[in-house]
């Protein structure tokens, strides 16, 4: 079912906080746990989750990104704590998380209607066949919180700047390993370079930004991407090329 972003956030928040909610609710606590007070191990897990979320969200680009990371690690911690209490309860909790992930979806984020998706060697073939068009391509994976956080930002930029001679696309890295290697993009979770966005001019990479550059996190905000990728400059260049084409046709 497709539900609003706010409703999805509330559902994910409730599931993520299910362990502390049941731990301190009289009746339910007595049923699932031996006592209704946190032990040392549980306090350790809570603090560990808080520290991990704080580190992971040092440079998050939006509140959605922050909450996504918070809910993900809170669910992992809750699953571990439920397992400590009762393996069957942990199993039911894990099943609930999977059902929520599969069945409850947020509305599709708007992108340019001309957004093109590439896999395997399709990107290289497109660049070779149409070198006159400037391409802005995001290398992503659907399971990355960082890629999901940048999705609405990249979508907004694509709606603003899509032109006959400037187009936007996405390349699924899990299905395009050879293409990633060719353009120096690592899919390793340790390097954390995804998402990476490349501007191709004349069929060649002209600008590139990555989530992590030389070990330093990069904030992929709307403003930063426009500036560092030179989006406005490339767009102006596309407009100029279109004018020149029009003049050449009139001469003929």
Ordered list of secondary-structure elements with their pairings:
Layout (H helix, E strand, L loop, with lengths): L4 H12 L1 H6 L4 H5 L7 H17 L6 H23 L1 H17 L12 E3 L3 H8 L4 E7 L4 H17 L4 E7 L4 H6 L13 E6 L2 E7 L1 E2 L2 E2 L4 H7 L2 H21 L1
Parallel strand pairs: 1-3, 2-3
Antiparallel strand pairs: 2-4, 4-5, 6-7
How would you classify the helix and strand content by structural class?
alpha/beta
Report the total helices: 11
Number of strands: 7
Radius of gyration based on Cα positions:
23 Å
What is the chains' assembly state?
A: single chain
Question: SSE order in H/E notation?
Answer: HHHHHHEHEHEHEEEEHH
Name the descriptors.
252 residues, alpha/beta, 5-stranded mixed β-sheet, two-stranded antiparallel ribbon, 7 strands, elongated
Question: What does this protein structure show overall?
Answer:
It contains eleven helices and seven strands. The protein is α/β, with parallel strands linked by helices. The strands form two sheets. It has a five-stranded mixed β-sheet, sandwiched between helices. A hairpin with a 2-residue loop joins β6 and β7. The mean pLDDT is 86.
Short characterization:
By secondary structure, the protein is of the alpha/beta class. It has eleven helices and seven strands. Helix content is about 55%, strand content about 15%.
């Amino acid at each position: 079912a497709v539900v609003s972003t706010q409703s999805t956030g509330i559902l994910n928040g409730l599931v993520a906080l299910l362990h502390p909610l049941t731990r301190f609710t009289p009746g339910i606590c007595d049923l699932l746990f031996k006592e209704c007070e946190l032990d040392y191990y549980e306090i350790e897990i809570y603090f560990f989750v808080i520290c991990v979320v704080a580190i992971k969200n040092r440079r998050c680009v939006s509140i959605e990104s922050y909450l996504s990371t918070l809910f993900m690690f809170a669910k992992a911690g809750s699953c571990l704590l439920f397992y400590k209490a009762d393996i069957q309860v942990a199993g039911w909790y894990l099943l609930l998380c999977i059902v929520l992930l599969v069945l409850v979806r947020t509305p599709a984020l708007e992108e340019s209607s001309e957004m093109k998706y590439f896999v395997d060697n399709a990107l290289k073939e497109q660049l070779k066949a149409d070198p006159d068009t400037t391409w802005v391509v995001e290398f992503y994976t659907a399971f990355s919180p960082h890629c999901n956080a940048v999705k609405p930002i990249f979508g907004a930029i694509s709606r603003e700047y899509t032109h006959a001679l400037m187009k936007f696309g996405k390349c699924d890295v899990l299905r395009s390993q050879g293409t990633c290697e060719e353009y120096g993009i690592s899919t390793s979770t340790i390097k954390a370079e995804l998402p990476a966005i490349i501007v191709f001019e004349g069929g060649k990479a002209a600008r590139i930004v990555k989530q992590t550059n030389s070990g330093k996190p990069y904030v992929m905000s709307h403003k930063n991407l426009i500036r560092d990728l030179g989006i406005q400059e490339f767009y102006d260049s596309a407009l100029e090329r279109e004018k020149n084409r029009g003049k050449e046709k009139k001469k003929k």
